[in-house]
Amino acid sequence: MIALTRKRQKGFTLVELMIVIAIIAILAAIAIPMVLRYRIRGYNTAALTDLKNGFISAQSHYSAHVGTPVTLSLLKSAGYTQTANVILTVNDGNETALSISTTHANGDTTYSISSDGTITH
To answer: Is the terminal CB of the chain with fewer CB neighbours within 10 Å at N or C?
Structure first.
C-alpha cells in the first residue's frame, strides 16, 4: 500500500495574515490624521514666521526711509525672504497704520500684524 506522506509546509495561515493586516490598518487610521495635522501646523508656523520677518523688514525700511510707505517689493529689498507657498499681503504700508497679513497655501490660519506688533489670527 502506498502511504501518503504530508510535507510540513512553512508559512502563515490566512487568519494570521488577516490579523496582521487589521493591526496595520488600525495603526494607519491613527497615524495618518496625526501626520496631516502636524503638516498643517508646520505650514501655519511658516506663515507666522514670515509675518514676523516681514514686520522686522518693515521696521528696517521705516528707519532708513522715514515716511515712505512699505510694499512687498520694498520689504524684499529690506531683507525679507518669502517662504515658498506663503502669501504675504501688505494691507496698509504706512508706518503708523501698518497692517501685514500672511497665510500658507496649505495652511488653515491667516495671521495679521499691526503697526504696534500685535499679532492676531
So the answer is: N
Q: What is the pTM of this model?
A: 0.76
Q: Which of helix, strand or coil describes residue 6?
A: coil
Separation of alpha carbons 107 and 53, rounded Å: 18
Distance CA 40, CA 85 (A): 13
CA distances 28 to 8, 14, 18, 31, 36, Å, are 35, 21, 15, 5, 12
Domain map (residue ranges) of the chain:
14-120
Residues in the chain, overall count:
121
Strand residue runs (E) in 7-121:
86-92, 99-104, 110-114, 119-120
